[in-house]
C-alpha cells in the first residue's frame, strides 16, 4: 500500500510539473523515473525493459531524415510556392498555408513544421502589411490536426501504433480521410474569429510577394534529389512494413541510414540535430508508467472506466475520446498517451471488446486536444514564442478563445465519425 501511494504521488507530481513547464520537462521526467528505481518500486532491469525502443527508434530515424531534408530548402520552397498561389487574397493565403502545415505535419514533427513555415509566413505578412496572427494560429492548429493522420505525424500516434501493433497504412485508412476533412474545414472556422483581419486589402502589396524567387530557396539541388528518393523509398516501405514483417523503427532507421550514406553528410552533424531531450523524455515516461502499472494503479483505473461505461463499447470509446481531448488541452499529450496505453490493454484483457475504435479514439482525443490551449502542445508554445518576438503577444485567453471552440468542434465531429464508422 505504501508503494502504491508513493508511486501515485510521484506520477501526479511529475505530470503537474511537466504541464506547468516551469522546469525542463525532460529533467522532471527523469527525476520521476529515477525515484521509481531508487525507491525500489522498479529495479534497473525492469526499468530498462519498460522502454519502448520501437518508439525511440522510429523518432530517431525520422529526426535524422528531417535534419538532412531541411538543409535542402524544400520546405521554404513549398511555402513560397503556395503563398504565390493565393495572389493577394488573405483567405486563400490562410487556406493554403493551413493545408501545407497540416500535410507537412503528417510526415514531420509538428514543431519542425512550425519552425519551418512561420518565418516564411512572417515575411509574407510583412510584405503584404497584414496581421500574421490568424495565419500563424491556423498553422499551429493545422499542425496538430495534420499530425493525427499518420503513424509518424505526432508522438501519441507513434506510441499507439507501437502498443497496438497498428501499421502505417492502418492510420492512413482509418484516420487520414477524416483528418483531411478537418483540415479543409479549419480555415473557415479560423476566419469566423478574425473577420477584421480577413477583410484587409492586401492586393495592393502583392507585387512584393511576386518578387520572391522560390527557386532560390533550394540550397542544394543534388541533396534534394537524394533526399526525396530516400524519403519516398522509406514511406513506401512504411506502407508495407507489416506485410514485410518489419517494425516501424527498423524502417525509419534504415531510411535514415540510407540517406546518410547517399548524402555524404557527416553523421555527427545530423545526430546533433536529433532532439535527444525529447527521446529521454519518452524513456523516463515509459519507466514511470511501468512503475505505476506494477503497483496496480493502472488496473484500478481500467476497472473504474469499465464500471463507469458498464462494458458498453460505444460509451467506452466516447469516454476515452472526450477525456483524452479535455485532458490533453491542459497536460502534455505524450505523458497522457503513455499513461493510457496500459489502461486500454487492461480494458481489453477483462472485456471482449474490439479495441480498435478505442485506439482511434485515444489518437483523435490526444492529438486534437492539443489545440485547446497554448500549453497543450510543444508546437503551440513554439509558435506563440515566435509571435512574441515579433511584438505580437498571444495570451492564454487569446489562444483558447479560438483554439478551444475549434478543439471542441473537432471532437464532436470525431464522435460522429467514430460512431458511424465503427460503432453503428
Could you give the topology of this structure?
Layout: H1 2-20, H2 25-38, H3 44-50, H4 53-70, H5 74-86, H6 90-105, H7 110-128, H8 133-146, H9 155-164, H10 168-174, H11 176-193, H12 195-198, H13 206-210, H14 221-240, H15 248-263, H16 267-272, H17 276-294, H18 297-309, H19 313-327, H20 333-350, H21 356-368, H22 378-389, H23 396-423
What does this structure look like?
The chain is mainly α. It has 23 helices and no strands. Helix 4 (53-70) packs antiparallel against helix 9 (155-164) and helix 5 (74-86) crosses helix 7. The radius of gyration is 22 Å and the shape is globular. The two termini are 42 Å apart. The mean pLDDT is 87.
Report how far the terminal alpha carbons are from each other: 42 Å
Please identify the structural class as seen in this structure: mainly alpha
Shape: globular
Beta-strand residue fraction: under 5%
Task: List the secondary-structure elements in sequence, H or E.
Answer: HHHHHHHHHHHHHHHHHHHHHHH
Low confidence ranges: none
Gyration radius, rounded: 22 Å
Count all strands and give the number.
0
What's the helical proportion of residues? over 70%
Summarize the structure.
With 424 residues, the protein is mainly α. The protein has helices spanning 2-20, 25-38, 44-50, 53-70, 74-86, 90-105, 110-128, 133-146, 155-164, 168-174, 176-193, 195-198, 206-210, 221-240, 248-263, 267-272, 276-294, 297-309, 313-327, 333-350, 356-368, 378-389, 396-423.
Amino acid at each position: 500500500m505504501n508503494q502504491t501511494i508513493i508511486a501515485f504521488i510521484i506520477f501526479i507530481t511529475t505530470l503537474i510539473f511537466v504541464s506547468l513547464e516551469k522546469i525542463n520537462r525532460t529533467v522532471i521526467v527523469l527525476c520521476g523515473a529515477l525515484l521509481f528505481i531508487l525507491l525500489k518500486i522498479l529495479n534497473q532491469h525492469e526499468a530498462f525493459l519498460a522502454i519502448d525502443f520501437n518508439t525511440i527508434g522510429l523518432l530517431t530515424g525520422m529526426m535524422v531524415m528531417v535534419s538532412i531534408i531541411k538543409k535542402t530548402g524544400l520546405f521554404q520552397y513549398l511555402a513560397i510556392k503556395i503563398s504565390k498561389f493565393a495572389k493577394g487574397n488573405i483567405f486563400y493565403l490562410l487556406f493554403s498555408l493551413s493545408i501545407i502545415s497540416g500535410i507537412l505535419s503528417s510526415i514531420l514533427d509538428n514543431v519542425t513544421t512550425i519552425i519551418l513555415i512561420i518565418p516564411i509566413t512572417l515575411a509574407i505578412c510583412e510584405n503584404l502589411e497584414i496581421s500574421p496572427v490568424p495565419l500563424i494560429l491556423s498553422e499551429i492548429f493545422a499542425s496538430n490536426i495534420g499530425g493525427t493522420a499518420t503513424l509518424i505525424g505526432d508522438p501519441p500516434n507513434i506510441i499507439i501504433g507501437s502498443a497496438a501493433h497498428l501499421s502505417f497504412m492502418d492510420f492512413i485508412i482509418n484516420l487520414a480521410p477524416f483528418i483531411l476533412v478537418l483540415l479543409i474545414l479549419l480555415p473557415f472556422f479560423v476566419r469566423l474569429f478574425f473577420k477584421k483581419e480577413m477583410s484587409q486589402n492586401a492586393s495592393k502589396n502583392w507585387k512584393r510577394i511576386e518578387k520572391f524567387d522560390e527557386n532560390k530557396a533550394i540550397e542544394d539541388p543534388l541533396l534534394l534529389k537524394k533526399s526525396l528518393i530516400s524519403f519516398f523509398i522509406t514511406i513506401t516501405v512504411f506502407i508495407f512494413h507489416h506485410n514485410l514483417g518489419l517494425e516501424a523503427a527498423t524502417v525509419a532507421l534504415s531510411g535514415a541510414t540510407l540517406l546518410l550514406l547517399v548524402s555524404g553528410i557527416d553523421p555527427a552533424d545530423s545526430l546533433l540535430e536529433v532532439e535527444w531531450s525529447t527521446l529521454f523524455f519518452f524513456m523516463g515516461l515509459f519507466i514511470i508508467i511501468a512503475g505505476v502499472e506494477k503497483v496496480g494503479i493502472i488496473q484500478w483505473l481500467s476497472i473504474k472506466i469499465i464500471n463507469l461505461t458498464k462494458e458498453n463499447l460505444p460509451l467506452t470509446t466516447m469516454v476515452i475520446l472526450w477525456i483524452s481531448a479535455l485532458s490533453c488541452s491542459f497536460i502534455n499529450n505524450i505523458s497522457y498517451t503513455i499513461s493510457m496505453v496500459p489502461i486500454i490493454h487492461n480494458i481489453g484483457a477483462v472485456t471482449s471488446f474490439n479495441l480498435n475504435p478505442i485506439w482511434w479514439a485515444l489518437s483523435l482525443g490526444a492529438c486534437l486536444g492539443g489545440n485547446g490551449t497554448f500549453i497543450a502542445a510543444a508546437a503551440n508554445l513554439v509558435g506563440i514564442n515566435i509571435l512574441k518576438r515579433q511584438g505580437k503577444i498571444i495570451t492564454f485567453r487569446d489562444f483558447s478563445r479560438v483554439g478551444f471552440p475549434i478543439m471542441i468542434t473537432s471532437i464532436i465531429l470525431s464522435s460522429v465519425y467514430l460512431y458511424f464508422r465503427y460503432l453503428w
